[in-house]
Amino acid sequence: MRRFACWLLDSGPVLVLAVIAGAGSFTHIRDTAADHGQTGWMSWAIAVCIDLTCVMAARERQRDKKTGRLRRGLISWPVLVLSGGVVLSLAANLAQAVPTVWGWITAATPAGALLVAVSMLERRAASPRPEPCPAPVPALEADEDTTPVETEDGPAPALLDYARRVADEHHAKHGKPITRDALRVRLGISDQLASTLIQAF
């Protein structure tokens, strides 16, 4: 329950912004479509298609980053789709505006806010999530005189085995090797020992 409350406080404002901005943008697109002959359910379908295309393209762009399909210097298909959706959304919002500077600014606000909200959610999805606190390391719980963390030949075998398991779990979960800092935090050890363990893998 506490974890859900923290998530709600952290992500709630962004989600509320996304819903409100999406509703405003949706209404402008629907009204523009209806004004130009696409009446009834078709105007609703057009509004849904444009707004959901923007969200889908943003998520696909994030997926390309995670899988390494996004190459430097190249404009990917999701980016083109997202750009087209944003242009259509802005055009529909501006078409409903009073032809003044402030009319255009206020009418464009829902589309701009929706784009900001989607980009915020995309940015949060890209950032690494904090890992749960691990179980204590058996080798560190024992008496230091009887079960040392390090020996003359390097890290204690029990600690090295545990560190390997932690590294394997991290790689399976995130798709990339564990860093020295992440291993240090997970095991509660020094930077030097974490570096030694990384080199020993």
UniProtKB/TrEMBL annotation:
Which residues span the membrane?
Answer: 7-29, 41-58, 74-95, 101-121
Residue ranges annotated as compositionally biased, kind Acidic residues, are 141-153
Give the Pfam families listed for this entry.
DUF2637
Q: Which domain of life is it from?
A: Bacteria
UniProt keywords (A-Z) are: Membrane, Transmembrane, Transmembrane helix
Q: Where is this region: Disordered?
A: 127-155
Protein name, UniProt field: DUF2637 domain-containing protein
In its UniProt entry, the species of origin is given as Nonomuraea endophytica
The record lists the lineage as:
Bacteria, Bacillati, Actinomycetota, Actinomycetes, Streptosporangiales
